[in-house]
């Protein structure tokens, strides 16, 4: 009982702080700290996939490489989404909306990669032409979903956040 009474103020403080907005520079720093490794991981996955695709001689090998690429990209996007969500919301006008737009954009990217991965896995590798035609269609859809997930930063009209993103080294 004594232990519970001692932990109650701490638990209450954590709950109260969880809903608090953070300073624009702190928020921007957290967001950029999440996005920088995400971008690098996506670039690394693409480079690795290009190397593997050059040596893939069969639809089955191509399928295996694409599934790994798309799964890795989906996982990396979810990790970045979670980190941005954990950053909270910036203490600016419309901070909650701005934070949610960042999270939604990364969720849409994650989902685009996930859909493509699932669709590639479903393709039959028995007929080369059918398989590669299917890959082209899936990648076209992925590119469309990815493009539609793009965050319109021009809609973010917070001078404090714009300044923070411009000043923070992680964001350059």
UniProtKB/TrEMBL annotation:
Keywords: Signal. It comes from the Bacteria. Residues 1-21 form the signal peptide. This is Lipoprotein. The lineage of its organism: Bacteria, Bacillati, Actinomycetota, Actinomycetes, Micromonosporales.
């Amino acid at each position: 009982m004594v232990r519970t009474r001692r932990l109650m103020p701490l638990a209450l403080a954590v709950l109260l702080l969880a809903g608090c907005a953070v300073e624009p520079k702190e928020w921007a720093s957290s967001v950029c700290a999440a996005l920088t490794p995400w971008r690098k991981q996506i670039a690394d996955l693409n480079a690795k996939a290009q190397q593997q695709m050059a040596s893939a001689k069969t639809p089955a090998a191509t399928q295996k490489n694409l599934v790994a690429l798309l799964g890795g990209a989906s996982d990396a996007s979810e990790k970045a989404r979670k980190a941005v969500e954990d950053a909270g919301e910036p203490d600016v006008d419309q901070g909650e909306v701005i934070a949610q737009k960042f999270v939604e954009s990364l969720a849409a990217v994650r989902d685009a990669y996930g859909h493509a991965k699932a669709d590639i896995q479903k393709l039959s590798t028995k007929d080369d032409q059918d398989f590669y035609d299917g890959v082209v269609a899936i990648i076209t859809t992925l590119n469309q979903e990815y493009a539609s997930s793009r965050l319109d930063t021009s809609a973010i009209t917070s001078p404090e956040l714009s300044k923070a993103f411009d000043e923070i080294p992680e964001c350059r």
